[in-house]
Amino acid sequence: MNQRFRITRSMQENPVEQSISLEECKDYFASQPDFSYSRELIIQGAESTMSIEGDFFMWKYADVEIPFRHYMGDVYVAISNEAVVPKMIEIATDLQADVVDG
């Protein structure tokens, strides 16, 4: 199972904005190469397909798409590939947020 991280401002004493808004994410990710927005994440297994509704910013890396999910003022990502770590740190820095386990 992949380790999950949260990009959040909740750890900061005096953040500009306490939460990361969906609109802020839409604006930010629209300006980033290799990202697209989706209201649904589709996961295909060997015997079934599952869909999850939400606000997903899909990062196209090599031949895979890696979801960054906006949920309740934070952005979540699972470390499914080692390339996710520097991208996650870059996003957190740009959003003036921290990365925490969770």
Question: Strand order of the main beta sheet, please?
Answer: 2-3-4-5-1-6
Assign the structural class, choosing from mainly alpha, mainly beta, alpha/beta, alpha+beta, or little secondary structure. Answer: alpha+beta
Low-confidence stretches: none
Total helix count? Answer: 2
**E-strand count:** 6
**What summary fits the major beta sheet?**
6 strands, antiparallel
Mean pLDDT: 93
Q: Please, how many domains?
A: 1
Shape: globular
What fraction of the residues are assigned to beta strands by DSSP? over 45%
- Rg from Cα: 14 Å
Task: Tell me roughly what share of residues is in helical segments.
Answer: 10-25%
Order of secondary-structure elements: EHEEEEHE
Distance between the termini: 13 Å
Features:
alpha+beta; 102 residues; six-stranded antiparallel sheet
Describe the structure.
The protein is α+β, with helices and mostly antiparallel strands. It has one domain (3-101). It contains two helices and six strands. The chain has helices spanning 22-30, 84-94, and strands spanning 3-8, 35-44, 49-61, 64-71, 74-79, 98-101. Strands 2-3-4-5-1-6 form a six-stranded antiparallel beta sheet, with helices on one face. Strand 3 (49-61) and strand 4 form a beta hairpin. The model has no long low-confidence stretch (mean pLDDT 93).
Structural topology:
Layout: E1 3-8, H1 22-30, E2 35-44, E3 49-61, E4 64-71, E5 74-79, H2 84-94, E6 98-101
Antiparallel strand pairs: 1-5, 1-6, 2-3, 3-4, 4-5
